[in-house]
Amino acid sequence: MEFNYTARAKNNQIQKGVIEAPSRREAIAALHSRDLVILELNETGGQSVFTRRIGAFDRVTTKEMVAFARQLSALFSAKIPLLESLRSLARQTENEYFADIIFDIANEIDSGSLFSKALAKYPKVFSDLFINMVRSGEASGGLDRSLGYLAEYLEKQYYLNSKIKGAFIYPLFIVGIGLFVGVLLMIFVVPLLTKTLLDANISLPLPTRILIGTSHFLAGWGGLITLIVILGSIFGFAYGVKKSPSWRHSWDAFKIKMPLFGKVLRGIYLARMTENLSILIQGGLPILQVLQISADVVGNTVYRDIINEAKENVRIGGSISSSFEKYREIPPMVVQMIATGEQTGTVDEILKKLSAFYSKEVDASTRTLSQLIEPVMIIILAVFVAFLVASILIPLYSMVNAIS
Q1: Mean model confidence pLDDT for the chain
Q2: Are residues 250 and 380 in the same domain?
Q3: Residue 171: inside a domain, yes or no?
Q4: Could you tell me the CA-to-CA distances from 289 to 114, 144, 277, 305 in Å, in that order?
């Protein structure tokens, strides 16, 4: 492949030319090996690598971001210059979309831009928390420490999100399989079992009539109509929650009050909130900015509003704990420990301990939830099978008695 490039040499002279390479990444690496700063790189007859933005399938996963933060922190702590560290990571990143972004950030830095300013060009990839932690590290001269905090934070959030998925995907999967098997039975098995009853032209009990009616409904257009209605309701609800603040707030409030799942979700949000606050305070950000960023990334509008009110309380001279104690969603233990931290000047350490505590609570709640789901599903399946058997056997027994 051939690429047209425009680059700046060390003497600040602009160079233009053509380079042959098997891929964009190889072309970029070859130009960097010549100590050239890439200003523009175009595949012959194509668009610029750095101006082209790929479609909806191009994304940076949480796992990739965790690996990037951890490796960048390790390289920078080993006294490898930031520019060299970024280009090294870009060359080894398998996601070409992410690699292009890292190369572009490296070029911005090489052109004299701050690291945080270069990151801010990609708000969909790097969160406000990430950018502000880097900015704080630049201002205080402790960028290595900020990168270490970021790596630790992203790893914890990645595992916390994995727990969320584990807590909800498993029961949803079991329910989905159960519904699928139930529908198959109603469409293909029940008609065969009830054919004899219909041919006998006898009076059928109510459970049998319900079973046969449901089977006929699902076997015809009813199944498709039901599926369309269910999917339409799900997407309509999701759209409403996304677009309407009142819907979103009501849904978020319901989630943390749900039986079984509510306890898990409360633990998740408390772990996330305390971890965010701890990391940002350790990073040296002003407390009002810490609270604003934490509110934006907590992931639940109920807790977002609580944190925002705490921010306003702090703005007028109050404390975080005095604001938190007004809400049932914040356990008294959290309020008391934060109040102790405010009095002793160890809020970041207290919050870190709280985050560790609630992360363990989420682990325990998730295991308990998984253990409860199985017997509940077995009971539901047993009730369905009992209804199925009774609906068929009762009229069969009556028919045999009538014949004898």
Answers
A1: 83
A2: yes
A3: yes
A4: 20, 21, 10, 15
